[in-house]
User: Fold these one by one.
Assistant:
Number 1:
Amino acid sequence: MSENSAYNDLVSLYRRIGIINDAIAILDWDQSTIMPEGSASARSEQLATLSVLSHDLLTHPKISELLDKVDFNKGKIDSWKVANLEGMKRAHLHAISVPADLVKEQSRANSTCQMEWRKAKQENDFAFLMPSLNDVIEVTREVSVAKSENLGLSPYDCLLDTYEPGCRSERIDEIFSNHEKFLSGFLGEVMEFQSKQPKVVPLKGPFSVDKQKKLGLKFMKDFGFDFSRGRVDVSLHPFCGGGLNDVRITTRYDENDFTSSLMGVLHETGHAIYEHGLPESWSYQPVGSARGMAMHESQSLLLEMQVCRSYSFMIYAAPIIKRAFSGSGQAWEVDNLHRLYTRVSPGFIRVDADEVTYPAHIILRYRLERALISNDLLVADLPAAWNEGMASLLGITPPNDSLGCLQDIHWPSGSFGYFPTYTIGAVAAAQFYNAAKKQLNDLEGEISKGKFQSLLSWLRSNIHSKGSLLSADELLHTASGDNLNIKIFQEHLQSRYLN
Amino acid sequence: MSENSAYNDLVSLYRRIGIINDAIAILDWDQSTIMPEGSASARSEQLATLSVLSHDLLTHPKISELLDKVDFNKGKIDSWKVANLEGMKRAHLHAISVPADLVKEQSRANSTCQMEWRKAKQENDFAFLMPSLNDVIEVTREVSVAKSENLGLSPYDCLLDTYEPGCRSERIDEIFSNHEKFLSGFLGEVMEFQSKQPKVVPLKGPFSVDKQKKLGLKFMKDFGFDFSRGRVDVSLHPFCGGGLNDVRITTRYDENDFTSSLMGVLHETGHAIYEHGLPESWSYQPVGSARGMAMHESQSLLLEMQVCRSYSFMIYAAPIIKRAFSGSGQAWEVDNLHRLYTRVSPGFIRVDADEVTYPAHIILRYRLERALISNDLLVADLPAAWNEGMASLLGITPPNDSLGCLQDIHWPSGSFGYFPTYTIGAVAAAQFYNAAKKQLNDLEGEISKGKFQSLLSWLRSNIHSKGSLLSADELLHTASGDNLNIKIFQEHLQSRYLN
């Protein structure tokens, strides 16, 4: 078999895996949006069956054989192929590291715990969750150790690498320590600064779902969302899902408050335009996929935080928002809407957190999950550790575990190593946007006029069209001339929240 | 390996196939209802990939081996298992009869022709369709010949057997000849009779989609549609799809005429309650599936034609319909609505045909498709043969092929052997309903009061809960005490249309 034919066989195999994963993604979307409740268990079986098929293909010994046959010598094959082979190898290594029994055991532990979590959260009963959360942590630890040998990484770094290839805890430690120090002074300054500013004038509802939907669609269109290759629907927890040429974002509407749904739509739109901009000729191949969860989050946060919560954007958006809800008075003016969208206030709940306090929620979770995985923290001690961390980072103590360590679904569903990507994404977003502003002529002026084409083009050529050709670090460096740099994020915060 | 363990292995395999087929069904539904147009080709690949996986499992040599190990001796294992094994064998035989290359060739020919058909129909250009339709017929013939040897049936009977197990052309010939003779006199009598009746008073629209939807939901609920295990949505061509505990029906709304959408919803509801009533403990097994397309159609037609177009139903429904659209005047009274829903008028289009003329459309298609498959009719001669048949059966001649042999998607998509199930279903529906009326106390009285529970229970215990335990003939005989009997259908027509 020639080297080329081995490569082509790999391409076919990964294409097949990608297609099955796309089918899974649509079934997942359906489950979260419109599926009748009575078919939950049938759907679980469909998803499990297809996941096993996909996993069986990805772990097939034939892939190892084929990978061995292909020469990785970078001089001989083009860089896209090299990156594709690296992506193939990485995915295969991750998958074969975990024995089939452990995969099953993990899936079982995660679904049990996830189910019990709903009850525990609702009833504020951490003790009830403890045994199943313990199981999840044990099996996650086992998985991370199994991967560790094959990947040559520490167990926790194997978990990180699942979500963001190349992401390592050493780097995160450094960034998070730096930012914790920064925050300890900055947060107080912001609170002090805001206390001297005019109060936010509240917006009076109700705001009909129809009007909210129309407004969201208007801005999605402005940002170039391609409706011939995507949809927006409603789900309990907003997400961006779907597959190739079929990107499906969701939101939820609150008739008393349109503001968070609107930003949610713009956030998911950022994810969606990344997916839409991936290189079509590398569809279904590892190199044609998005570069990892942190880079994905950078695209949603670039849109939501960097662009849409900026004063420039509000100059454009405020009159449109006002018209959409037939608003009148000061509450609907640029200044007030901008103030509303940049209000900072330490709170217990991560998903409701503002841009300034959000990283504190992540730093806490990152440290706790590392300690849980390394067995330095027992599950029984989690609530106390959580509350101490909140007090230390944000100066507030949750009155109960539902507002504390029970709030997120991530750990009960087995997602360890995911949380850091939120903040790495926020840092990268600031850095990308900063570079775009430098490289494009009067970007903020354009945004204040509702012109987003040059920004979109910049994102397309610097990020989206690269797929996974470059590592996240290379991608950042090529686009911004710098490695991941927390200072740019901090400067952004200073400029936005102290002016 | 013990016999029992061989059986259990078969059950697992067919369960897996069933689960994959369910996933396919949901993706199919999504494609026909809400999928963005730009993902058509990605979706085709998903469906093709999953179909190949399902087909690979069904044709796996292991199934033959396992089937050989199980003793079919009816004395030794219970009748459900026997029927399940027969269903397994039948599905496996159908699948292995066709070589993989031919499966691919058929799929390719069908999709090309189906695509060209849209254009040919729109532009009334039969010549354009001829080459690809010829391909479809040739490959269908090849498939039917390949199956013929393994199944011990004539090639055309193999096609019939795909959709309705056990259905044979000899029987259909007999039934259709009988009915053609009946129709030749009866249709004239009905037209004569109706000409002496008061004219139908037209209903004046527009009828908002919202109101139509609400009305449809109301009747669906009346008939016991379980919304926790199903949905109703919109698609261009109404259908009943989805999977286990997730039955999804569709309709389309015309703001100028609610009547056909409403009956469409009730028709699909008949299909849906059949699916909902299948034996849960045999889920995903051949014996747990519906008994074939003719029996399926009998359930939709029993609801639509036997129940909902009856005078008794209209007594219940007319005031509800009137209220739904705030109607007033004679047009909205029972007599007029019943007259509207039982109006007979020969026309060119099958899907618009009334209950009396519908079988004529089917008889025509059945004869033509048999002749096409047996090579007794050349594709080039199809339009002329079609028009002659319409003239002979209904006394009308289509002015063009779009209103003639180009109207249906069935042949271009490779569905030969499907058409007869519509009329076999209509005959069975009359027979089942006739039996229910005899066995239940004052069923029509109950229906006129909007009480459908005893009918639903009768269908559940006599038909739905049987799955594929009995052959279609046995099912009919057990429920009605008679073999398939066209006379009961004809008596129903006489009683409804000449009184």
Number 2:
Amino acid sequence: MAAAAALMRSLDDGEPEARAALRALYAHAGRAHVVGVTGPPGSGKSTLVDRLVELARKEGRSVGVVAVDPTSPVSGGAVLGDRIRMQRHATDKGVFIRSLATRGSLGGLSASVFDTVTVLDAMGKDLILIETAGVGQDGVKVAGAAHTVLVVLSPGMGDDIQAIKAGILEIGDVYAVNKADMADAETLERSLHLALDGVPSRDGWQRVIVKTEARSGKGVDELAVMLRRHRESLAQGGAWERRSQAMAKAAFEELLEVGVRTRIKKNLASDKAWKTLLEGLACRRMDPRAAAQRGLRRLLRGT
Amino acid sequence: MAAAAALMRSLDDGEPEARAALRALYAHAGRAHVVGVTGPPGSGKSTLVDRLVELARKEGRSVGVVAVDPTSPVSGGAVLGDRIRMQRHATDKGVFIRSLATRGSLGGLSASVFDTVTVLDAMGKDLILIETAGVGQDGVKVAGAAHTVLVVLSPGMGDDIQAIKAGILEIGDVYAVNKADMADAETLERSLHLALDGVPSRDGWQRVIVKTEARSGKGVDELAVMLRRHRESLAQGGAWERRSQAMAKAAFEELLEVGVRTRIKKNLASDKAWKTLLEGLACRRMDPRAAAQRGLRRLLRGT
């Protein structure tokens, strides 16, 4: 456990030895079931993840949690509640929890998530839950880095939330209508059913909706069964390998982008021709599209 | 008006003539006050934007609105309400409204926003409001493409919203505590004051908080005054030019990234060496970091 934590820190610092270790681990990973958990803020994702951890531990399965954190390290007090809630698993050696911040970096979130998943996987974790910050690009991206995507919704969040739902509707495999004891839960379930009707099945899996009450734990058993059933469905149809590969490819593509972005920053700061581009932009002699065209010719091979 | 709309459509389609027209417009733009409006879903951004438009029109100023839309064109019914609400300006020639979708593209949102702003600016609009989808990377990015950033918050949105607030706290110049007639408005204002106390002033401007009630229109006058005061403060301190340039630079950098991403997709689809990389990833012979390192050498000049 301590070794894994140390390795993850070294990876964050970009130490070459850590990269080599990760490479070795990667060759032997690929067994864990990676579940991405997403949904709008306030839907109860954290509590539900907590319950799923609890249940898996009761069944003797080991668990890793990767919590993708929306706040900056500076002002990050708001998610302390989650951190504290998860503390009750802190002394359980079968549970490993890691938080990753989404901000303050050049990007590379999927790659960090992927690294963490690789280490947890190689540690022998049976189940790895990636809890996303909620919505938007990050949520969609991270959810795409999983075998199974669990979308958590809850009733009574107003019209604006409808828009968010629309954004994350297609990405789910399993849907939890959480806070199912609330008045509008039936309505939410019905409209979700209707909305999902129009979405084609993926990898031969028909999307399922499970009603849960994360606070009391009601429905969590059934949710866990559905997550496992999705895993089995993937394994039978050959989609398990395909999704594992898509996870690696997503990390690869993101690392490419981070590498390119780093190079662009470097060029803008120190390369003379690039500085001329910026000056042209500044005095409106050149518009952003024209400047980008020239920049790309300087940046990419074979242009 | 019709010509501007046609030009924007041609830009979306990537027509070279449209690009040339934009280049010509860009050289003569730079007069409009661009205000980015962001904040969590449900805080009342759209209604407040609507009020600001109304007020500016009363004062005889012309207005452009760029609404950045979180939903896909397919399932985008949820924001129809906003669209309808804005319809009441539809017959007013002094108001031009354009929606941009955040999803379903290779990126390039900031660039599209920038193009639209350039056209509206060259059309002679005095005020351009960019209304973002809410939170996350897109919100921060688009808000950064403005002279003035207005952050809209409202009370009673629960703990999860706190986390989002933390994420958008530093980017604002003017803050609206909307729905100020609600019970917790005082509390929100106080905690916002406390939170902003720790944030250093930017471009010599001390961040301000204005209480508004977008539904009734209360406080919107004062908000408009503060937005204009920020503009004057920027102009006096020389920061106006600096922010205008930052907007162009953001569009430029994003266009570079889009160009690179397009190239990567092309390589992955058709280049033999890149396909070998993907195969190595798929059979775990190579981990994503190693593959990305090789990819970057093939992609970038001078590596």
